[in-house]
Each structure stands twice: as structure tokens, then as C-alpha cells.
Predict the structure.
Amino acid sequence: MNKENSDMLEFMNVRKLLIKLAIPATAAMIVNALYNLVDTFFVAQGSGTDSIGALSIAYPVQLIVLGIGLMIGVGSSSVFSRAFGRKDEDSMKRSVNTAIMLNLVLTFTVSGLSYIFLDELLIFFGATDGNIGFARDYMSVILIALIPYSLSIMFNNLTRAEGRPKIAMWSLIIGAGLNIVLDPIFIFDFGFGLGVRGAAIATGIGKTASFIYVFRKAMQKESSLMIDLKHLYRIDLSMIKEIVAVGLPSFTRIAMGGVLIIVVNNLIKQYAGTEATTYQSIYGVINRLIRFSLMPGFGLVQGMIPIVGFNFGAKLYRRLHEVIAYASKLLLGYFTFMFVAVLLFAEYLFMIFTPENNATFIAEGAYAFRIVALGFSFITYQVILSSGYQAMGYPVRAFIVALSRRFLLFIPIAYLLTYLIGVDGIWWSFFAADIITGSLSFMVYRFEMKDLQKKMV
């Protein structure tokens, strides 16, 4: 066990520690989200605006596999962090071995079944005649890359949990950077000229490189993860239950994002008529712009998680209260700033993604993005609560918080509003769901912080 990392999590000023851990996580997430934007840009330039909708159609399966990586990564890192705080090396080692094997089994299963039923999935996901060919080309390649991608996400969480955030940062930067460099080579005619399929190949190479880097670092003597490849099969069945229970809210949040995409694409297909392919492309761009613009906030939360897990395990409630309160203030300020930025620059952002200068795409896209951005500030306390509960090992609470916005509220509201006002109802559904869950989360947040204050006495 690395005593230097343990001392840092236990004794360093929590505000400085949060920034120290958040900066690498934030940098990695920005680069990782940037590659999605660049990927979308190159695909649009190489195959036209309609091809962007194909990426949106293909995204649910990617999200499910990402959710598996996050579920196991967050769950195992929570178990690992609390064991780290107790100085329990045996539990630390078992949590990592169990996480690796569980990830391999689940990702192979999902990727394999998706490949077998690919066409049926794409139609179910809302593919139109204008983009199903693009979606098929992309998915037939990307499914292979999802296995190392899920493993790299899992290891990124574990390396942050042991206090080595720069490794997680460089893993994502290497993968995303390589993807960005390879995109034009594989997509455009001056290279291999493979179009959308080329984008998938570049992504696959980048994700594999990311996994190789973080795995090699995890095998170093300096690591506290203590991976034993010879006895990797020795998993702890009882620990699987805890890992899944703690990580399930992360999977739910990500997987519900996939369900949400399926619902939205099918509602667009139903209500947008001949413009369905264009509106699906608009939604695809909004998804990527949201991910890019909000990622620094989620990077901040990633920096908070190991601090919360360690100090909760060590029963250092004053440090726990301080880091959650400080992270909440920073997150609220950042999300509010991004809302203002979207209001000012929405049109310019959509101009980037249409080489044909599609007027409908630009005008309707900017209008939709501004409506969606109205709810940015309201999601602050939902994000803090969900991540904090996971780090402390409260899976049921985290699950309820994660489920509320994207499933319990958004989907029924979206069906109702699209029935009443058409496609615009989709964008207003985001805003309505964010206001309701944000207000409820703030009330729960205040209750939990008062409870922590009592434990500090």
C-alpha cells in the first residue's frame, strides 16, 4: 500500500486536494469529450450533416458498455477507497481482481449480442432511411473497440481511487489524442477514404491505446492496486454484489442516457416528418456539445469521489463535509457559466457541423440547445448527491437520485410535450426534468450536509 497517497488523502488540505485530484481528471475528460466533437466534425465534413445522426443512432450501445465500465469502476473504487482508508490490503486486492473479471464477462456479452442483432438494434434505436447505412458502417467496427474502452474506464476510476489521477488523465489524453490525429487519415480521400467506418477504426485504435497505457501503469510496483495476473480468476463473489450495488447508479445514469437517446430519436422520427434525419443530427450535436461543455464539472466530481470515499471510511466527517461543500460551490458556478456561454454562441457552434450550411440545421439546432441549457445550473446538486452517495457506499440513495431525472421524469414528460407541441416538446422536456430533479436534490443535499455537521461534534 502506498503510504504517500494514503497520507495525502487523509491529511492534505481538502480544498487543495480537491483541485489537485480534479485538474488531471478534468483535463482528461475535456480531451475525451473533445474527441467526440472532433469525431463528429470530421464525420460531417467527410460524409455530410446527415451522417451525424448515424452517430447518435449508434450511441446507445456505446453508452451501455461505458456504463458497465463506470459501474464496475465506481463500485470497485468505492470498495477499494474504503479499504484503503482502513489499511485493509486484502480487500483492496480482491476488489481489483473481481472488477477485472466482471468487466470482461459483461462487455464481451453485450458487444457480442449487439453484433449478432445489429440491424434489428439500429431500427429499434430509431434509424431512418437517410442514416441507417452510416450507422451500420460505424457500429460494425466500434463494437470491437468497446471491450478495451470499458476496461480503460474501469482502471481510470481505480487509479484515481489510489491517488494517481495523472495516470487516468494521460490514459484518456493518449486515447483521445490518437483518435483525433487518426480521424482525418481514415475518413478523408487523401488517406484511406473510409468515411464513417474510418471514424470508427480511429476510435477503436485510440481506445485500445488508452487501455494499454493505464493497464501497464496499474501493473507497476508503485501502484497500490496489487494486480495478480496469475490468480486473476480468484474473484470474490460476495464482493461482486457490493461492486454492482454501489456502481449501479452510474450504470443506470449512463444506460438511461442510452434509453433517452432511443426515445428521442424515435420521437423525432415520428413527429419531424421529412426533416427527421436533420433533427436527429441536431440532437446528436447537442449531445456532444453538452458532454464537452459540462465535462470540467464532472471532472471536478471525479476529483471529489476518492476524497469522500477515503475520509468516509476513515470517519473524518469534518473533512468530508468541507470537500462536498466546496465542490458544490465550484460546480454550481461552472454550470451557470456554461449556460451563459450557450446562450451567446449557440449558432456559431452549429455552423461548425454543417459543410452544406444547412439553414434549418443551424437555426433549429441553436434554438434547441438554448432551451436544453436552461437547466444546466439545476443539475448541480443531483450530480453531487449521486457521486457522494456512491463514494460512501449508499447505492440505493445514489440509484434513486440517478434514476429520477432521465427515467422517472424526462421520458413521460417528453411523450406528453411532443404530443402537445411536436418536436419542440423534446427540448422543453430537458428543461422541465432538470428543474424538478434539481430542486428536489437541493433539499436532500441540505439535509445530508446538516446530518454530517452533527457527526462532526
The CA atoms of residues 60 and 164 lie 31 Å apart. The radius of gyration is 21 Å. The mean pLDDT is 89.
